[in-house]
Input
Amino acid sequence: MEENYCQSCGMPMNEEFYGTEANNEKNQEYCIYCYENGAFKSLN
Output
């Protein structure tokens, strides 16, 4: 099984942790902690 990693923070991901686009589709490049609703989250 191929393992994906967040391109922002490097966290190992499966489908449960994929970020989301503005249209609610899954984004396989970034995790939910870095990317949500089509935008990167603030680090503040």
About this structure: The chain has a mean pLDDT of 93.
